[in-house]
Amino acid sequence: MLFEVVAGPLDPQRLVEHVRRDESGAIALFYGVVRNVNMGRRVLYLEYDAYPEMATKVMRQIAEEIRARWPVTEIAIQHRTGRLEIGEASLLVAVSAPHRKEAFEACHALVDRFKEVVPIWKKEVWEGGETWIEGEPVEHPSSQTASDVN
Amino acid sequence: MLFEVVAGPLDPQRLVEHVRRDESGAIALFYGVVRNVNMGRRVLYLEYDAYPEMATKVMRQIAEEIRARWPVTEIAIQHRTGRLEIGEASLLVAVSAPHRKEAFEACHALVDRFKEVVPIWKKEVWEGGETWIEGEPVEHPSSQTASDVN
Amino acid sequence: MTGVGKARVRLFARLSELARTRETEVELGEGLTVGDAYALLCRRFPDLAGFENIVMYAVNAEYVSRDHPLRDGDELALIPPVSGGARVV
Amino acid sequence: MTGVGKARVRLFARLSELARTRETEVELGEGLTVGDAYALLCRRFPDLAGFENIVMYAVNAEYVSRDHPLRDGDELALIPPVSGGARVV
Predict the structure, then answer these.
(1) Does the pLDDT value for residue D5 go beyond 60?
(2) What are the chain B neighbours of A84 within 8 Å (beta carbons)?
(3) ipTM, 2 decimals?
């Protein structure tokens, strides 16, 4: 498995090579891309901050969760940090599996889970302002313990 | 939209560039890859035959079906013909959408539909034999008219 | 039989191997349908017989039913069950 | 208060902007918990106050609850709600 937080452009070809196996008939590859509009505001660019050492560790944990639920062959994830322009890819998730159904379902579930728990943050900058996007307020830590990500 | 039947290697980067749009936050890209085993048999290589003029036309029809059901931004499909070795990609389907749920669902549905109606055929060659893979026998044409693909 | 033109016929995959050709022609009789054309082809290429119930037909690259009539200049394609992608559905 | 070592503290995103630093330290009193450390940091960086109920905590890169005790040499991270990928979930 491959889990990376990188400062430069992402490398989809490398992820696909990483997950390709002779016994796998399907690869699902997801690109998260910077959109020009969010919640009705015209976005100029984004800034991503990350806790890289923990982010790659949590990626591995959620990948293991996914492997426990779907018969997937391999998984690779890359996320970019720093300033990203409209149209640039911030996230790549690649999943290979013997069959396409598992590849699609596991890749989708992995992206959903990624956005819940991986310590990466996005600042949206628009004409005349900026804000950190913090998703939904989460449960308080006392009920959201380490076991949630195991 | 982009629909191609090609004799050489597929070009995922070109498909992704084709579907990328400033308003699209998600791209789902599917790779169909030649497996080394099918139905318990060790496969040596595959041969794909196609009716290219009709294949691209039917790809466009099923892409329009998908666009009627999901708010996707762009679609691109490439299929390769001729001899393919284990690990090579035979099919690429790229779908962009504002949000990831639609990109995943539409891409998955499009691959499923592709395998039902696009006139492309696969011959499996194994040690000491070969066979055309013809999927499930379909309904007789009298009940399977042109309206099924509109 | 009154000749009213010709249709080009294209064969693919298993059917082209059985007929040992990827392309042929049929002379069109009055009101000749796609199904009639397949029956004619079975006389010319006996190995095609027995596939009537699994083959689909396209005329000018659109799926049609077996009772679709052929016109001069049409392209008829015999379509075995498809198997795009890397594996059986 | 008996000093029993130090923990490194890392701040990210909005919290690092509010504290105007990405890294600091806390002196550990006996049995000092992660939640206690956050309260200490709020005295040093008043703008952090009010985020107790949305922040999550990690010690040595593992999520922990606020009553988790800190030990000498630990790395405590203050984790605002995450927003990976290109948009809000």
Answers:
(1) yes
(2) none
(3) 0.88
